[in-house]
Amino acid sequence: MAEALESKYAQSQLKKLNAALADGRFVSVRKLLHELPPSDTALILESSPVKTRDDLWELLDADFHGDVLEELSEDVRNGIIGKMMPANVVDALEEMDTDDLAETLSSLPDQVLQDILQSMDAQDRLRAEQALSYGEETAGFIMNTDTITLRPDVTVDVVLRYLRLKGDLPENTDTFYVVNRTDNLVGLVPLTRLLTAAPDDKVSAVMDEESEAIPVNMPDDEVASLFERYNWLSAPVVDEKHRLVGRITIDDVVDIIREDAEHSMMSMAGLDDEEDTFAPVLKSTKRRSIWLGVNLFTALMAAAVSDLFEATLSQLAVLAILNTIVPSMGGVAGNQTLTLVIRGMALGHVNPSNSRWLISKELAIGFLNGIIWAVLIASVIAVWKQDFMLGTIIAFAMMVNMVAAALSGATLPIVMKKLKIDPALAGSVILTTITDVVGIFAFLGTATLFLL
Amino acid sequence: MAEALESKYAQSQLKKLNAALADGRFVSVRKLLHELPPSDTALILESSPVKTRDDLWELLDADFHGDVLEELSEDVRNGIIGKMMPANVVDALEEMDTDDLAETLSSLPDQVLQDILQSMDAQDRLRAEQALSYGEETAGFIMNTDTITLRPDVTVDVVLRYLRLKGDLPENTDTFYVVNRTDNLVGLVPLTRLLTAAPDDKVSAVMDEESEAIPVNMPDDEVASLFERYNWLSAPVVDEKHRLVGRITIDDVVDIIREDAEHSMMSMAGLDDEEDTFAPVLKSTKRRSIWLGVNLFTALMAAAVSDLFEATLSQLAVLAILNTIVPSMGGVAGNQTLTLVIRGMALGHVNPSNSRWLISKELAIGFLNGIIWAVLIASVIAVWKQDFMLGTIIAFAMMVNMVAAALSGATLPIVMKKLKIDPALAGSVILTTITDVVGIFAFLGTATLFLL
User: Fold this and answer.
1) CB distance B5–A288 less than 8 Å?
2) Residue of B nearest to A225 (CA)
3) What pLDDT score was predicted for residue A445?
4) pLDDT for position A96
5) Does any CB of chain B come closer than 8 Å to the CB of residue A365?
6) Helical packing angle, A250-268 and A423-451, nearest 10°
7) What is the mean pLDDT of chain A?
8) Considering CB atoms only, which of B254, B288, B307 is closest to A228?
9) Architecture of domain A10-142
10) Pick the CATH number of A149-249 from 3.10.580.10, 3.60.9.10, 3.40.30.10, 3.40.50.920
11) Which residues in chain B are closer than 8 Å to A234, comparing Cβ atoms?
12) What residue stretches are annotated with the F-box domain (chains A, B) (predicted)?
């Protein structure tokens, strides 16, 4: 038995690799890469700048190409495939499972995909086209076709003898599927059941008929939440006629769970989920500029609102100084509500039957927050600027903006979801625009009425 | 075989339950709850306001209490346990696996925990204390103790006969563990191997000696990344003497993966990961107010910086109007970098050997972004305000702030991690303070120099 895992293993290997690469000791690099499991090689490639990445790939034995490509994130993988000869890509794809093949091919730019398909022989091309035939982000797309099927009328003993003859089982096999003559799924037999059953029991007697099957076109995030909710390790996939077409295993679902959870965080900052931390400067700049452009537009809108009060601002410079406080507090409070509701929707907690309740709850919090921070800011301003009236005005604006923030934070994601817009992507820009505009209007407007 | 899963099943059940509850048809509610799997009941409880939640819990058969508690999130679970009689809690805990027991007990307030421990008989208390003996967020804390161990010198046939006698295997058993006389782990036998091996093979001949074991004190996020990286379904846990103490299964790891991924998103908005979407108003207000307080402080700091330029602002109201644009752009650009680096660190891509490279990359992006948005804002201002000098000044400030944003976005998380502060929690406040202060200084300072 190997030693207990050294947790920083991949990191120390990365250090060694970098040193060997810097010194031009290519034989050592090759040797080090040869010893690593594919997932560690993938991690190292993802942790390297593009140039180092290309050098390492050149030095990696072609036998490992497929296994490593499987483990890479989309952006990094496409970068590498784009620089490979199509024939070499075909070789690398040959050993892949259907689900990994589908994922790899579908994310490629069209031209690269066509080149690769054309370099394939007829059989491989058929397999690739089959893998690509299910819509992206569906159960069919992430399933594997390597199911082991049993007939209901054979005995456990026969099955065991068959398995011994067959030898190796597909990776992560934990369940056998029982199908009838027309390939309809009629039951499941967990491996554990097979081990503990009496040898002369019929499969039909030990199989589980109650289990659920996943329709081939179910969205992958629903598949993931079913796995998470019921603690499944694998699940059968059936077509519209309830024929078994494949199985989904937990390791593919784990990736979806992580991606979905990350998606909101990345989108809220205006980043692409698959964004490669070490992408070239120009590519990253281009990707991030859309978000900055949107933000410039909203910042100019806020400035245009302030512009309406130019006369007020030119008479009272103190208003200019305090003008950012109310919008900033509204933005933070609104984003808290927004984030909570977006997560609640992702976990399936927020739905039409309780959204009205949720909105009133958030409004109540907004109201309470408004009172707390209004009193606080009024006291600070009254002391700092020795102006009680000014304190009252900023307090009123704070109150208004906190309620507006809560209302928009709670309703925006619900409305956007109905309009089929991703709330994580656009929610926080729209929210900030609302809290900026309302905050400035409330503060400068009230000040214009009462201070001039 | 049941029908293919209806994906909105839980939602339609929730609707029915709510209707029955509203009409006071308690018998129907009980019946509906009785038919649901525990995870669906948990989802429904989490999707309900506290009052409804309490009513539903009252109506739920006590036999299901333990299974449902296991599936609930911390906040909701503690709320329910807090209202139960200690003796009833003890009954509910009796059937729990060690890992779920540890998680449930450890998150309880101290007084409640003491009451519950005191209501237990000696044997249960011992089990509870054992479950709690490993540090939270370690492998020991999330492991189960229900391993099936084999001796190396018995034959496969003997093992199979033993398993048939034993009957049911623990949930999610996919591997048997081979231990010697002193309980040291010497190998693993996957179930699939046992099925395909010849009956007279010795266990020592079919076992896998190369596999890795997890040290009992390894942090749980490292455990999760190992599972993710190597696509494990389960892994043995060993103590410092390499004795087998338990096993970790993928279903527990999935929860950690989701929690870790969500943690960053929630922390960046100043929320607690476990925050219950339907928590009472007062509790939520209190929790969120810390973050709002910090933000008020930083907003006041930004105002204090503007205050330094009161003379300038009182002469040129246009500066007051444009004062928010540069800080806002810096904040967004900096947050993009910050989010990317935080995610890169979570995925293990960012480490000491490449962080310098990453910082220079982000600086280059900041510089490029600075040029793009400086030119754009200068043109907008030159046209809008008919003032070329003003455009040049805001462009210069934009340039400076974009570089400052990139630099702080990239270095902050790296520095904070070294200081053992969670970058997701405090990173974005510090960053926004920096971009606000630098932005205002650069804009109003330059304007004071050149426009007065």
Assistant:
1) no
2) B7
3) 95
4) 85
5) yes
6) 20
7) 88
8) B254
9) Alpha Horseshoe (1.25)
10) 3.10.580.10
11) none
12) 102-131
**In this structure, which topology does domain B149-251 adopt according to CATH?**
CBS-domain (3.10.580)
B191 in A contact zone (CB under 8 Å): yes
Residue A3's pLDDT band, with cuts at 50, 70 and 90, is very low
Q: Where are the domains of chain A?
A: 10-142, 149-249, 281-451
Give whole-number Cα distances, B100 to A232, B255, B256, in Å.
17, 12, 13
Task: Provide the number of CB pairs (under 8 Å) joining chain A to chain B.
Answer: 393
3-state secondary structure of B155: strand
CA atoms within 13 A on the CB side of A272: 16
The pLDDT of residue B8 is 53
Q: What torsion do the CA atoms of A165, A169, A175, A179 make, to the nearest 10 degrees? A: -60
pLDDT averaged over consecutive 10-residue blocks of chain B (452 residues)?
48 76 84 85 87 90 90 89 89 85 87 88 85 87 89 92 84 89 92 87 90 90 86 91 92 84 83 79 86 92 93 91 93 93 86 86 94 95 92 96 96 92 85 94 95 82
Please state which CATH number belongs to domain B9-142. 1.25.60.10
Residue in B closest to A1 by C-alpha: B209
CA distance A53 to B279: 48
Interface of A with B in 44-73 (CB under 8 A): 46-49, 71
Q: How far is A404 from chain B (nearest CA, A)?
A: 16
Q: Which of residues 389-448 of A touch B (CB under 8 A)?
A: 436
> Over chain A, what HEC string results?
CCCCCCCCHHHHHHHHHHHHHHCCCHHHHHHHHHHCCHHHHHHHHHCCCHHHHHHHHHHCCHHHHHHHHHHCCHHHHHHHHHHCCHHHHHHHHCCCCHHHHHHHHHCCCHHHHHHHHHHCCHHHHHHHHHHCCCCCCEHHHHCECCCCEECCCCEHHHHHHHHHHHCCCCCCCCEEEEECCCCEEEEEEEHHHHHHCCCCCEHHHHCECCCCCEECCCEHHHHHHHHHHHCCCEEEEECCCCEEEEEEEHHHHHHHHHHHHHHHHHHHCCCCCCCCCCCCHHHHHHHHHHHHHHHHHHHHHHHHHHHCCHHHHHHCHHHHHHCCHHHHHHHHHHHHHHHHHHHHHHCCCCCHHHHHHHHHHHHHHHHHHHHHHHHHHHHHHHHHCCCHHHHHHHHHHHHHHHHHHHHHHHHHHHHHHHCCCCHHHHHHHHHHHHHHHHHHHHHHHHHHHHHC
In this prediction, residue A4 has a pLDDT band, given cuts at 50, 70 and 90, of: very low
Average pLDDT over residues A116-132: 86
A361 contact residues in B (CB cutoff 8 A): 49, 278, 281, 284
Lookup result for tokens 């030990």: A206
Decide if pLDDT at A49 tops 90: no
Question: Regarding predicted confidence, which is higher, B172 or A327?
Answer: A327
Inspect the interface and report whether the beta carbons of B14 and A353 lie closer than 8 Å: yes
Most B CBs within 10 Å, among A250, A290, A329, A433, to test the B interface: A250
Q: What is the mean pLDDT of residues A256-260?
A: 83
- Is B60 in a helix, a strand, or coil? coil
Is residue B144 less than 8 Å (CB to CB) from chain A?
Answer: no
State the Cα–Cα distance between residues A52 and A37, nearest whole angstrom: 19
Residue A231 contacts B where some CB pair is shorter than 8 Å: yes
> Into which CATH architecture does domain B281-451 fall?
Orthogonal Bundle (1.10)
pLDDT score, position B365: 93
Range scoring the smallest mean pLDDT among A261-275, A370-384, B103-117, B121-135: A261-275
Q: pLDDT class for A402, splitting at 50, 70, 90? A: very high
